[in-house]
Every structure is written in structure tokens, then in C-alpha cells.
Amino acid sequence: MNVNTESVKGKMKALRKLRPEKGLDLVEVSIPQVKPLEVLIKVIKRAICGTDLHIYKWDEWSANRLKPPVTTGHEFYGEIVEVGSEVKHYKVGDTVTAEMHVVCYQCYQCRTSKAHLCENVVILGVDGDGAFADYIAVPEINLWRVPKEIDPEWAAIYDPFGNAVHTVMAGETVGKTFLILGGGPIGIAAIPVAKAAGASLVILTEVSEYRKNLSKIMGADYVLDPSKEDVVAKVKELTHGEGVDVVLEMSGHPAAIEQGFRCIKKAGRYSLLGIPAKPITIDFAKDIIFPGIQLQGINGRRMFETWYQMDQLLISGKVNLKPLITHHFKMENYKEAFEIGLLGNAGKIILE
Amino acid sequence: MNVNTESVKGKMKALRKLRPEKGLDLVEVSIPQVKPLEVLIKVIKRAICGTDLHIYKWDEWSANRLKPPVTTGHEFYGEIVEVGSEVKHYKVGDTVTAEMHVVCYQCYQCRTSKAHLCENVVILGVDGDGAFADYIAVPEINLWRVPKEIDPEWAAIYDPFGNAVHTVMAGETVGKTFLILGGGPIGIAAIPVAKAAGASLVILTEVSEYRKNLSKIMGADYVLDPSKEDVVAKVKELTHGEGVDVVLEMSGHPAAIEQGFRCIKKAGRYSLLGIPAKPITIDFAKDIIFPGIQLQGINGRRMFETWYQMDQLLISGKVNLKPLITHHFKMENYKEAFEIGLLGNAGKIILE
Amino acid sequence: MNVNTESVKGKMKALRKLRPEKGLDLVEVSIPQVKPLEVLIKVIKRAICGTDLHIYKWDEWSANRLKPPVTTGHEFYGEIVEVGSEVKHYKVGDTVTAEMHVVCYQCYQCRTSKAHLCENVVILGVDGDGAFADYIAVPEINLWRVPKEIDPEWAAIYDPFGNAVHTVMAGETVGKTFLILGGGPIGIAAIPVAKAAGASLVILTEVSEYRKNLSKIMGADYVLDPSKEDVVAKVKELTHGEGVDVVLEMSGHPAAIEQGFRCIKKAGRYSLLGIPAKPITIDFAKDIIFPGIQLQGINGRRMFETWYQMDQLLISGKVNLKPLITHHFKMENYKEAFEIGLLGNAGKIILE
Amino acid sequence: MNVNTESVKGKMKALRKLRPEKGLDLVEVSIPQVKPLEVLIKVIKRAICGTDLHIYKWDEWSANRLKPPVTTGHEFYGEIVEVGSEVKHYKVGDTVTAEMHVVCYQCYQCRTSKAHLCENVVILGVDGDGAFADYIAVPEINLWRVPKEIDPEWAAIYDPFGNAVHTVMAGETVGKTFLILGGGPIGIAAIPVAKAAGASLVILTEVSEYRKNLSKIMGADYVLDPSKEDVVAKVKELTHGEGVDVVLEMSGHPAAIEQGFRCIKKAGRYSLLGIPAKPITIDFAKDIIFPGIQLQGINGRRMFETWYQMDQLLISGKVNLKPLITHHFKMENYKEAFEIGLLGNAGKIILE
Known about the structure:
Four copies of one chain form a homotetramer.
Chain A lengths: L10 E7 L7 E6 L7 E10 L2 H8 L2 H6 L4 E2 L3 E9 L11 E4 L2 E2 L19 E2 L11 E5 L3 E3 L6 H4 L2 H11 L8 E5 L3 H12 L4 E5 L3 H9 L4 E3 L6 H8 L5 E6 L4 H10 E9 L7 E3 L1 H6 L4 E4 L7 H11 L9 E5 L4 H10 L4 E4 L1
Parallel strand pairs in A: 11-12, 11-14, 12-13, 14-15, 15-17, 18-19
Antiparallel strand pairs in A: 1-2, 1-4, 3-5, 3-9, 3-19, 5-6, 6-10, 7-8
Helix pairs in contact in A: 4-5, 4-10, 7-8
């Protein structure tokens, strides 16, 4: 119980989607009032997700999902400044990040260790007010304490880093060969995770020079460019003709998905995280049934197995995220930050 | 070591594909000579598989795979009449059936508990001489001893029964709800297996009246006819709106596969055994990634986990295959047997 | 949100441990006041657990654990009569039972799908006020909705039934042979669970005639009496000399534990639920290491995988708990009920 | 089929146990004649196992197991010089090592992916003639091809390295904290394996200065000396009071086994490989049941999952075994080699 905390009141800046159209506005709003089981966090670092870029552009997905006005942003690091009356495990001054999927803890998925697939999820920064603001209110049960050993900027990207860890860890990893399709920030983050998790070979495919270079810096054994090389032939060569044990699909591109089926070993694991824009045509017999492939959809982060894994990978020094964080902006320069994000020549972009 | 067995010599009848065209011929050939690690089996019961029907019809798959002349048939029960010089674990008089996938025991799949996906498999009755004959030679390592408690006709269908058991058992079963798409012999065999394995609800979809009736006899809780009912609505109703935990695809039909995606619960298991004739278009985002579906290709039978499971399910009385065996013919009346098989109004057809 | 419920106030009867000595007292106390995330339940059925017998007797474990005064009882079924201000998923009139392990949802165990091993657990009826009263207050997150199809008395014993289901389901079950050591209520409940979960053979050992008889009624294939039979020899005979796949230890007796090691197959699963009073001497080399045994401690029920399994096993009709409930008493006749429980000639005893 | 190989005939040197007493003799015997499914291997490197030291000393275990005369040794690397008439996958000139457990491929364990627990195993070098000779005959199905990238001396110790890999890999590893009890060659080999497999912390306990030093060289994060430090207190300190996720017991010492129970986290994995000389007394309730511990016996190496893992760990450079190989002797100086082995101040000892 935390009886003595004073309520934080007043106004704050927030980056909000106000109207159903392109763009965001940096406006002044009231600081959120915490409920009994919530804490109020002063946000110190924020990071831009691909989802935020969709919201900024106001594409079809955003138009169907968001109900403006809403404060955006779901990747952050901050410090607790107020705790609700029933909060038991955190106190003012604790440094935290949070799982922004607010789940119900009563549906079948929540009650069988799959809360990341909750039937009633509310995502803060999408369905509710998010972290691109001076303060954010978050339920205690969603908080993740950030140990001192972890760089605050790394803590700010636990959400996408968690996507990478969840995808890599969705099956066996030790002594396995990996093909990662797509070098966006999550695909790139998956490189050191796979290696730390025992992968004996990590190949990544990407066409952007910027991202190819970043993938090499982050430790990929081979970076193949599908616009210049025969990916399937090269993967087969690198795996003695057998193909890889694990394919991680991080691009959503139909051509890449097809390459994955051509490059995977019999009984292999094919984990899908990238979201294709359209349906895809697959030869079930040849590509899944006869070779006994395990195709799996990956969504969110395991609550909270993935979070412990992230801590351990970073604290032990097995994964270094420093090169992945390529840009820093003040929140008021958000337009410049979002435009760079849309161009794609970036790793993770931090909003201070 | 078996030093005293005499060699069985002479001629025998065999049902062979002699030419690349429709039909089979019942001809006289030499009894096979056993190699040091093989046994010779007098075949007592045989059963017709869907694969045999393809071979009989000489469809595209058969034309690409078979190299006539070859003796057909891979489902059987028989008695050992001769053992090779290096055979150690079987003797003349033992009653057996066999896994007809002759595998290499040296490839990656064979050496990591996935011999059913062997890179170098030879299937007797398809790639080599099979069981539609008076005698067959089979490697010792492929034999399965048939306990006395098991009906010889049930032993003769361990191959397709094993497909059903392998598919049901490819994930959790206890207290799970199942949807089986397609009421061919394997789909129907999966009904009592799922129930014996703890399924709390088994729904099967099928259009043929004959097979719908047989599915009910074999214990399906509900048999839905997609030509007459709204399968998705009915499955949702039967599962309190949640969908089923497990879908077993046994039909290969695109419409059924689509229904499976509509009927499956988040994080559900979707096991594919039926072979679609053509590629299929799937909405990866909506049908696999967001709901976290596990899609898996199933092939053959686990060697020999599945076989032990079959023994236990039958010996314990948990599964009764009697209603599934609907027709009996003498081998010389094979044409009639195959024509009935092609019409589809049959469970399993035995050739004596 | 439930804004219109009126607060239930006044006095109620409760069966309490008032002093650190043998016995319980039925006294009048205030009806509990619900907190924002709790509900108040009118208790309709209660059941006596072995733990309650320990508390009644005031043995060493009780003396170390309990801090009187406390209301006892953790097995019950009831109806919600009041909901706290933040309760979202339940309403007045809902029929429920509950997981009485109130866990923290913040420790490593809670956050990695093992809340049944919470580092900070408070057990209602042991560490906090329990269900042997007219009313009980329980956190919403601990509630389990009781479907209409389920008999209220069965719902009242979900706690021990859940121990049985958790133990049976702690590894593979389908087509496996089981040996259950000890025919107390949990051991007996494990019989139909194992069979429903696909066990091909269930053997139970017990010395009490009453319990041996009840075990047979509940479906054991064989009930062996270690005081009259050579259990090891008989188990070996029933398993063709191989031993069983799974041993469930439900007795806590050193002699039974030793028999388990003698009866288990190589690579077998040995699940321990019964609590031995003293340390036990084991030959690690011969009994665990060379045969590759998996020995596992089982505690509580998985939250809430086990609870879904219980619902499914009962609703589907696969498990029938009726014979297990052998006695009924009014709460005021609790002394008689506890004395019968201590004698052991009983299945589950209900307090109305 | 290999029709043109000539038979290798004549005499060779072999290190044999000739009489039931201490010591071995280097004598001349006939080169083995290969059977149809065997190959003859010219042995190039051999390594001394702890088992060989037991055989040399002729302790109780050896006296019960061995039937002299027999050629010792089961760790080796060599080149095929002759292949049997039915051998299909290897040819003269191939460099190989071998799994020396010759298993039946017909028992329940062999046929369910647990051949390392075969009911009918014959171990070459213990039950049959082994590798401490110029030549050895080995069944084709037991061979393991040694890739060029792997140092022949590393290939010669795949047997004990495989014990280490099997033990580490018997559960989850990524982001887990490990305590290894005992710094013999297998315990020390487990250090880099655990780290390559994603362990975030590896602590080893050992009293010998030689082995403590070697453990540090091989990458242990902490090496604790139970004769000088409070192991339990230190492990708790290093794990923030929680204990480790995984304990690997490699010593067989009762005091170490007890320390393992004191240091392990709830729900932890406790893998036992070290062979205690006598039965051990355990508090089942406190040490296994309440904390939900998974205690598992480990034996041999998985055939051949472990072998692929070894290849991948070494070829990828994730594990370096060089520091572990500390001594080299010619086979004729075997006495000196065995005496150094018995003293314990050694990693692996190679016989050229």
C-alpha cells in the first residue's frame, strides 16, 4: 500500500492523433489521473514503432482501428511519480517500462499462459492513450522494472525487441541454422538474439543498403540481397544443400515468404511475424504437408516469459542493442523523426 | 540368428502395375528371395489405400512416381515364413504387419527422431514391390509384431490408422475440442482416436451420406454437412462462440481448409494431412499471424511412437475399428474392390 | 463496473481455529467487507480437505503455518451476492468456485505461467479467512465460473480434483500405463482422469478395504493391496515385464515410493504429490540416473489450465465424480464430519 | 554397396583387460573381421574416460560388468579402411568417430527416440572389444562422419562431450542461470556448452585447484570452492536471492547434491549425470514437491540429436575444446597416462 504519495496534477504535452487524417499534433492535455491499480509514469525515452508510422500516415489499418483523439506511442522508458491506492509492488522513483497490451486476465487465452492473444486486449498508444506524452498511466500488472544495468534507451525498445525474442524463442534454437527474411528493426534485432540463443548460422535477406549494413554490424553471418543474388541457391550452398532449420519471416513480402518455403529443411520451423498486405497463395502439399513443416503465427510478446529473456540477454552482455538505435530527436521535432522513419534508412528512432 | 529356416521358393500371385496406364494385373511372379536382414511374410490380409486407387487410375501423381512393373499394396497382415541370416528379433510363425516406409537411418531426419520424413525413403508398394501378393519381403527393422489380442484385419490397416493417430497426437488432446474436415477412412478413424485421447468434443464435416452415417457409428459427437448447413455458425454455436482447439484437415478441399480457419480458436492447432490438388490462397495476417495459429504438415506415422499408441488404443479397448472395415473381397476379385473404392461408398476394403 | 449492488452486512457463522490446539469452533463473526477487486460469495457447498484434517488435529505443520484466529476451509461452491467497485467480469447471481491460492502476479513464477508456485502465495482457509462460513470474500481474478451442466458438489471439490488433474496431466498420458500409489480422495480422483486422458491401464495400490472398493467403483483396472500382494511382481506381470510408463505418488509412504521406483519403465515419469513425513533414502544411480527417470514435484493446480481441463472432463461426461462424494453433513455437525474424515473410511465429505 | 574393398588381415596391438584384476595389458591380437553391416576403422586418436579408469582399477562396478578378455576404450577418432558387404553410406577413407552404444533398434526405448536407454545395449570397450587398439570394427548405423572443420582430437572425445551436451540440453537453456556441481572433464565441458546454448550465468563448484583453473579457462563466470566458501550463500547472492534455474550434477557427491537442492529456484530443472556411490537421503516434501522441482536422470547421448548439436557447436566456433585436452601419450605409455588420470590433475588425456 502506498498511502503517502501526492497526486500529480496539471497539464502536459502529448503527441496525439486528433482527426482521421495524416499527421499528428503535439498538444497540451491534462496529466492522467491514476486509478487504484495504476501508476503514473514520467516518460523519459520513447521510440517510434512501425505501427506509429502507420498511424502517422493514416493507412487503412489505422483508419479501421483508431478512434481519435488518442495519444500515440507504446515504446517507452520512464520513472514512476505516483502510485494508485491499491498498488503493492512498485513505488515512486522506480524506473520502468511496460507491456502495453492491457489484457483481461479472464478469457481463455489469458488464463492459459497466452495473454498475448487476449480476446479483450486494449493496446495503450493505439486503443487508449499512449507514451508519446510527458506522462502516462499504466496498470501495475503491466509494469516491468528496469534493472540499473540496462541502458534506458534499450528499455525503451523492449516492445519490438520482445517481438524479436518471442519469434526467435518460439521453438528450438541451439545449434540450429536461421534464415531471417527482412531487415527492419525487428528482423535486425533477431540477429543477435538468435546467436545468443545458440544459432549456429544466421542469414538475413534485405534489399536496402542501409539495413544490409546495419545487419552486418549486428552480427549476421551472411546478408543476402534478393535483388542481386539467388537467395535460395546461396542458402542451400551455406547449409550443405539441406536448407535452414528455422525461417523467421519479418518482411510480409510474398516473394520473401515464397523464398522461405524454398529454403527450409524438412520438419523445419517457419515463424511468421511480418504482416503481408494481401492473401498469399501456397502449395500446401509440396510446401507444408509432405515436408512436415511447422508454420506458426507470432503476435506480441509472451507475458512475461519474453521479458525475463530480454533482461537476461542484455544483462549477461550476450546481446548489444546499441548499433540498432540510430537516431535521436526531441519530441517537438517529431515530424522530422517520423519522416526519417518512413524513408526506412533508420534503425530505432528515439524521442527524448 | 536363425540358421535352420529353409528358403521358400517357387511362384506366387501378385497384383502388379505392368504398364503406364489404368488398371492392374494379377499375374504370377517368383517369390522374393530374402536378404540377410529381411524376412519373408505370407500375406493373409491386405487393405486398399487411397494411394492404391490413385495408382489404379494412373493419375498424374502415379505417372510421376511409379516405375512399372511393380507389385502394389502397402497395408497388410501376415505370418513370417522365412528369416534372413542376420535377423535377430523375429522367427518363423510370428504374426506381423510393417511400416512400409523403408528409411535410410543415416540422414538428418532419420537420426533425429523423424524417420517418417527420411530424405531417402523407399515405399514398398509404390517404389518397391508391395503386399498385394501371396508373399512379401520386408526388412526386419520395419516389422511390427501383432499381439494376439488384435484382430488381424485391424493389423492390416495400421498404415492408415497410423495416419489418423499421428495427426490426432501431433499436439495436445485432453479436454480439447476437435473439428475433423473430411470423412474418408482416415478422417473417420480419427474420431475414436481423438475421443480415446481425451477430446471433449469431436465434430466431423462430410457430404457423403454413406460416410456421414459411418462417422456417427464411429462416435462423432456431431456430423455436419457443408452442402446443407452453415458449418462455421454451427461450430461456433457448439463451442460457445470460441471455435475449436484443434482442426484436423483430412479432405484436401480448399473450401474445407477455409472453413477450418474460420472455426479455429486463437492459438489453435491446425494439422494438415489431406493433400490439396492445387495451391491455396490464405490470408496470413488474419488467419495465422494475429490469432497465433500453429499450422503443421503431417506425413506418415512416427516410427514407432505411433505404432505403440495404436497397440495401446486397440488392446485397451478404447478404440474399436470394426465398423470401419466395410468390405471383403478375394484378391482375384480385385477389380470389383477397386471400383467400389473409387465410388467412395466404403470404409476400408479388405483383400483376403 | 457494478454500481448498483448493495453491500451485504451483518453477522454469519464461521468454523474457525481460535486457539493453537486441537479442534475448531463454530462461531459468529462479521460478514467480510469486499474490497474493490473482490466479490462476496454466499457459500452453498463446502468440502473437507486432508489439509483441514491436519488443521483440526493441530499437527506440527499446522502449528508452524497457521496464525489463529482464522476461518478454515478452501473447497467450496457458492453464489455471488456482492461485487466490489472495480469488478468487471462477474455479477451478483453468478455461481462460482475459486482457486484459493491468492498469488502476487509479480514474482518470477507468477509471470512465467507457474503462478501455482508463487513466491508470495496466501492460501484462503489457511493463511487467510476461508470458506467454512456462510460467506467468503474472494478476489475476482481467483474466481471460476461454474457452468450449469456441472453438479454444485463437483464444483465444491475442484481444489482436490484439480490436484488429481494437474498430476495426471503433468506429462504424456495417451496410451500410457499408470500406477497410482495411494487411494485417498486425490488418488482415487486420478483414476477416471487418467482413463479419460487416454491411459491404457490404471493400477492403484491401497490397503484400506473401503478405499480399495471405491477405487474399483471409480474405474481402476486393478487395485493391488501391498499388505497382501507382491505389488512389484504384479505390476511387472500386467505390463509384460516392462513396468509402467507413469507413476503417480499420492500416498507419501516411503514403502510406496520405493515400489514406484521398482515398477517404473526406463525414461518413465514419476510424479510426486503425496507429502512424505520424513526424508527418504534413494539410490540415485540405480533408480534415477541409469534408467533416465523424470521425477517431478507437483503442487496445487495450474492457473488456470487445470481448471479448463476439469470443466471439459466433467461437461463431456468423461469423468463422473458422483461415487467419490460419500458423506454429507450440516456445518453444525462438523465434529462428526471431521472424525469420519480422520478415520479414513470416506471419499469426499460435504458440509452443506 | 562396396564391392572392391579388400579385407584387412593380420595382427594388431590392443590394450586389453585379460584377467579380473587391476591393470591392462598391451598385447597382439588378430585384426577384427567385419560383418556385412560393419566397417573396420584404423584408430588414430583415443581418449581415456573415467569408465576406463574404473576398469583399470578393477573396482566393484567393473568386476560386476566386464567379462575379460576384452579390448578397452570407447572414445576415438579414425579412418575407415574396410567396409562390410551391406554397408551403403560410408566408404574407405572416410574419417569417423562412433556412438559406442550398440543398440537393438527393436525395444520400446529404441523405437521411441530413446535408444540411449536401449534395454539390450552392448557397449564397445566395456561389453565388447573397443578402441584402445590399432583397429576396431563398428556397425555402420553407429558411425558418425567427422567433418573436416573439426579437429580429430575433438572428434575423439565426442562421447564425453556428448554427455555434457545431452545434460545441458535436457531442458530450456536460453537466458537461464546454471550451477554445475563438479569440475571433472564432463562438468568442465558443460561450461562452454551452456554458454553457447544461451545461459546467462554459469557457476561451477570444485575443490581441485587444477580443475578450478581449467574451469575458469573454459569460461565459467564463477568457480566456487565448497571447501573454502559458502556455496549456497554465494549462489543466492549471484542470483538476487532466487537461486539458479538449472542445476547440473556432475560430481556424484552427496554434499554437492544437497547443495544443488539448496541453490535451485522453484520449478527448476535438476539434471543428474554424476553417479553417487551410495543411496542418498532427500527431503521429498521440502526439496522436490513443494518447490515443483524437475529431477531428471541423464544417461549417454541422444542418438543422434546430441551428435548434430556437437557438430554445430564446434563448427560454428561457439565451443572451443582445446583447453580441455591437457595430455598426450603414445599407446605404449598407457600406464603413465592412466596413473595421471587417476590422480585427477588432468582434463582429457589422448592416446595417439
